[in-house]
């Protein structure tokens, strides 16, 4: 049976309170404490953690399992007007993690010492136990600065700022953002159907005068979250128009694309012959590299769920044509092939990074969006014989995909050390180094970049290849969709804090880190002049990503990180003319070819502010953990099976 959407769950997984400990090396800066102090710290941490999880557990409800309960799960449990932050006993409903992410290797994280991802959940190998030693030889990391920050504190701070008049500049920036957003609306037959990509009067329009599917997502969320008057009409119209375009015959150079492919963009044009406005869609035939957008269909499903969650309008998602559109997208992605992995094989340039950047294969952004869309569709498909078979396929794929990503894509300090010590050429289904990754292929920068506390999902995993680059979208979507475990989500937030100057800098946020330079840039990008080092997709800073970071921070219980990033954006973004992206290692300079008054830079800021001011808005773009897929029972060394 498909799992249903819910704002909360009943049973939160128990998380070990043992602190992750490391042997002290001469070249590592460690925190020196006495054995007694460490013991006391551990006891205090245990008590605090247990109390927090008890409070969170009491505030959760069980996933609905019947069709009626499924509808109930899609209803909004909180309003848009004011954040519902406390439970019946006064506890915070949205979790704030007061525990150290350094527990990830010892408990909820699937990492281990037998390869990428680790051994059986909840178990420690003999090798782990033999290397632990005593507390005298090891140390406990202090909590990250934002750990334990309550959403209630943010609301109190916001109220205080308003009373002191210090939010006037922020308020005027919000007013300007709404005004510019509305000026970008595109109308078809006198109805709003989307927004232009940019309205820069100083630059040639090119394709920035079109409505892009992925670009419209933050605009749609801003319209749904707007107070006191949400604007769901434009979102509904957009969903229906793009669905209509999906049904067109899609041909590029005599080759017909799959029936389920969604357009990358569309524009409204006046046809003088017919004397009326018509729609013109682009399915990749006009894109850089002529690549179809894999992410458009996923974003469409996710946005459909957000619309349903906000408005309670089930009639839209239950329309026969909408159900058919979802099924076409899903069948396109779930079709049988030669794959031995549950991940989705993609070409370079198939997502927001729509130019050659070495993301071909199995990029984390597409896999996370794939997982998110599968879970959203699982909850919106109507119950009938045809849908039930599709739901069964979805459930099997979700289970396999979550196991694969959580184990093989995850990287933290411990796992990096494991990969560094890999043996190669292992010819057996019991191999530890399953993808035959050569340790010498690990780039030097990773060893300096990886902190003792923290971790992230790497960019790509395929035979003999691991792309160790950080990609923000994939990691944030993994948190929002609950593809990341609780421990992994906490570790990602720890990494952002530990490497703030690298990933955030002076203008949030790096889409990818680090930049490709020199020989590597020439080979991977084909000497792309737009993707020079620390520019555009190659390490550029994109303000639009602020909404994704904010949502992920609230979901992980670390809203203070998002608040700090928003304050950075407010210092410059409006004054600089709402540019598309920033250049430089720290994002100091307006992008070399960046368009100003970029619509999704505007809407991304609005969504971030609306979520920080009202955290209940997170429910529109977030899914809780599915208990059926939380802890896979397979171990990496016994994950191969063959039956007749």
Distance separating the two termini: 26 Å
- What percentage of the residues does DSSP assign to strands (E)? 5-15%
How confident is the prediction overall: mean pLDDT? 81
Largest sheet: 3 strands, antiparallel
User: Any idea what the radius of gyration is?
Assistant: 24 Å
Name the overall outline.
globular
Strand order of the largest sheet: 5-8-9
Low confidence ranges? 1-46, 59-67, 77-139
Number of helices: 21
Beta strands, count: 17
Helix-strand category: mainly alpha
Question: In percent, how helical is the residue content?
Answer: 40-55%
Describe this structure in words.
With 644 residues, this protein is mostly helical. The protein has helices at residues 35-58, 67-74, 126-130, 151-164, 168-183, 213-225, 232-246, 295-311, 314-317, 320-334, 364-380, 385-409, 413-420, 444-449, 472-480, 486-498, 500-503, 518-525, 546-555, 559-572, 599-613; strands at 21-23, 138-140, 185-188, 191-195, 211-212, 251-252, 255-256, 265-271, 276-282, 410-412, 455-457, 460-462, 465-467, 470-471, 512-513, 582-583, 589-590. Strands 5-8-9 form a 3-stranded antiparallel β-sheet. Strand 6 (251-252) and strand 7 form a beta hairpin. Helix 6 (213-225) packs parallel to helix 21 (599-613), helix 10 (320-334) packs antiparallel against helix 11 (364-380) and helix 11 runs antiparallel to helix 12.
């Amino acid at each position: 049976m498909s799992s249903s959407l819910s704002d909360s769950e009943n049973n939160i997984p128990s998380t070990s309170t043992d602190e992750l400990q490391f042997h002290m090396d001469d070249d590592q800066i460690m925190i020196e404490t006495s054995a007694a102090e460490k013991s006391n710290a551990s006891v205090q941490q245990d008590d605090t953690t247990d109390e927090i999880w008890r409070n969170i557990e009491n505030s959760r409800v069980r996933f609905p399992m019947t069709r009626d309960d499924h509808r109930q799960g899609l209803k909004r449990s909180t309003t848009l007007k004011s954040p519902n932050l406390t439970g019946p006993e006064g506890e915070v409903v949205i979790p704030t993690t007061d525990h150290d992410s350094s527990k990830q290797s010892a408990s909820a994280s699937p990492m281990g010492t037998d390869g990428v991802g680790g051994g059986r959940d909840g178990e420690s190998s003999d090798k782990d136990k033999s290397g632990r030693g005593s507390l005298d030889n090891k140390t406990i990391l202090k909590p990250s600065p934002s750990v334990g920050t309550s959403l209630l504190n943010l609301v109190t701070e916001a109220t205080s700022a308003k009373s002191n008049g210090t939010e006037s500049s922020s308020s005027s920036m919000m007013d300007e953002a709404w005004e510019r957003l509305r000026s970008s609306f595109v109308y078809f037959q006198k109805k709003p159907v989307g927004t232009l990509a940019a309205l820069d009067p100083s630059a040639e329009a090119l394709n920035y005068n079109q409505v892009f599917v992925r670009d419209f997502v933050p605009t749609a969320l801003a319209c749904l979250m707007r107070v006191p008057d949400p604007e769901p009409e434009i979102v509904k119209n957009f969903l229906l128009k793009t669905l209509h375009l999906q049904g067109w015959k899609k041909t590029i150079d005599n080759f017909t694309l799959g029936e389920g492919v969604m357009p990358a963009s569309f524009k409204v044009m006046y046809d003088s012959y017919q004397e009326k406005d018509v729609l013109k869609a682009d399915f990749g035939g006009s894109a850089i590299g002529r690549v179809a957008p894999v992410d458009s269909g996923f974003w469409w499903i996710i946005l459909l769920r957000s619309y349903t969650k906000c408005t309670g309008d089930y009639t839209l998602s239950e329309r026969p044509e909408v159900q058919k559109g979802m099924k076409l997208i899903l069948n396109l992605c779930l079709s049988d092939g030669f794959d031995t992995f549950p991940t989705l094989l993609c070409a370079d340039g198939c997502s927001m990074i729509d130019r050659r950047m070495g993301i071909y294969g199995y990029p984390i952004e597409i896999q996370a969006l794939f997982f998110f869309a599968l879970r959203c569709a699982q909850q919106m498909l109507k119950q009938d014989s045809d849908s039930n078979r599709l739901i069964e396929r979805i459930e099997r794929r979700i289970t396999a995909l979550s196991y694969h990503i959580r184990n093989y894509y995850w990287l933290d300090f411990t796992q990096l050390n494991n990969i560094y010590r890999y043996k190669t050429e292992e010819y057996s289904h019991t191999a530890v180094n399953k993808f035959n990754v050569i340790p010498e292929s690990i780039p030097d920068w990773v060893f300096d970049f990886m902190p003792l506390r923290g971790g992230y999902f790497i960019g790509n995993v395929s035979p003999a290849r691991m792309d160790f680059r950080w990609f923000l979208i994939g990691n944030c979507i993994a948190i929002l969709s609950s593809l990341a475990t609780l421990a992994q989500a906490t570790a990602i937030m720890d990494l952002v804090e530990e490497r703030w100057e690298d990933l955030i800098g002076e203008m949030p946020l790096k889409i990818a880190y680090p930049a490709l330079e020199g020989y590597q840039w020439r080979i991977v990008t084909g000497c792309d002049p737009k993707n020079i080092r620390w520019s555009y997709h190659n390490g550029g800073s994109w303000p639009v990503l602020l909404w994704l970071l904010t949502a992920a921070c609230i979901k992980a219980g670390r809203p203070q990180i998002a608040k700090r990033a928003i304050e950075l954006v407010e210092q410059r973004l409006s004054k600089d003319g709402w540019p598309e992206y920033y250049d430089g290692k720290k994002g100091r300079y307006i992008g070399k070819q960046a368009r100003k008054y970029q619509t999704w830079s505007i809407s991304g800021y609005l969504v971030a502010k609306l979520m920080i001011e009202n955290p209940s808005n997170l429910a529109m773009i977030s899914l809780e953990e599915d208990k059926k897929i939380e802890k896979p029972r397979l171990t990496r060394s016994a994950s191969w099976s063959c039956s007749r």
